[in-house]
Amino acid sequence: MADLFASDEQQSPAAETPPGGPLADRLRPQQLEDVVGQEHLTGPEGAIGRMVAAGKLSSIILWGPPGTGKTTIARLLADAVGLRFVAISAVFSGVADLKKVFAEAREYARLGRRTLLFVDEIHRFNRSQQDGFLPYVEDGTVTLVGATTENPSFELNAALLSRAQVLILHRLDHRALCKLLDRAEALEGRPLPLTPEARDALVASADGDGRFLLNQAETLFSVSFEEPLDPGALSNFLQRRVAVYDKDREGHYNLISALHKSIRGSDPDAALYYLARMLVAGEEPLYLLRRLTRAAVEDIGLADPQALVQCIAAKDTYDFLGSPEGELAIVQACLYLATAPKSNAAYMAQKAAWRSAKETGSLMPPANILNAPTKLMKQIGYGKGYQYDHDAEGGFSGDNYWPAEMAPQTFYTPTDRGHEKRVSERIAWWNSMREKMREGGGDA
User: pLDDT of 164-179, one tens digit each?
Assistant: First the structure.
């Protein structure tokens, strides 16, 4: 047991970082209230804040983008509730490593000391390995804190999810990122060699990733400049020194944005280039498929309803074939989207309808289209006067479906491109029929 306790000391959550360590490590918070950008979790009313106040920690999954504080929060949680902290990475650990961790945790449990097991990239464990956690989580041998950048619904076993609370970490906003830079400058005892405009550009380039921002700041602190850099000079300097897409995924959001916008801009070759960049760099194919599906419904919609079908088919094909054969289905979906007619009419209609729903509250639909399952409802007029459209001439009654207190709205305006051109013509015909019915007192 002496060796076990020695190992524990080396992994203390409050262990100090050597003075010459990376800036991001030297700035790692020493208490939960110092974590920036996640106050919805760490604050007094947040899930983590409440757990700490109660002194009782349940197993949790921390889901969020890179550089948002998942590892830091796990370390500080262990410290806050007095648990032994052990960290492993699913990228580098296997079954033998897990068995050793669980065996040590049981020995500590016999001595009255519980273990917080932090598993980074937990989604990279396969289904069988994830099942291996269940008995140790259930009997309290370990309190599991898993970290993932991927949607737990897709990547983690349902059995494991049922035993853990999923907490969502936000990408760091401008205020939180600026606070990190302020701390970095205070630690270094000097300001960053940037103009105010360049400082804002540096914050924007982090795209919510605090670790990336601090790594950029460390690079700037390591070089002497005769005068502060403006945004152009900053861009030129960092371009020569920062990897575009490395294992920490600093270029992740830049490339996915380029892919999406190339599809929206109907440039199939550019879209395929950025897709290749991400796949070759090791991006999760399912993540790309989700983003392609988003592009299908946001930027194509009913201009070509097959776009969504192509994406779902590509996902099913990839699930069936795996890599590398299944990646051809992703390529096909990407090219289909880039060459399809474009429309964001459905996307704009959703935003407008959601906004109207929030503004109008709980207005009652007109009585004639309400369901009347009981005698009382029929007596007070529910369903009275409803016109069954299939019985009307042309299959169109022209009835009113809007609340009495609300004028009819237009949320969806189809374009004249692709399939939506036919939809537009159909809507125009319906509108003209309604107008004729109003003028004729109800008859077309």
Answer: 999 999 989 999 999 9
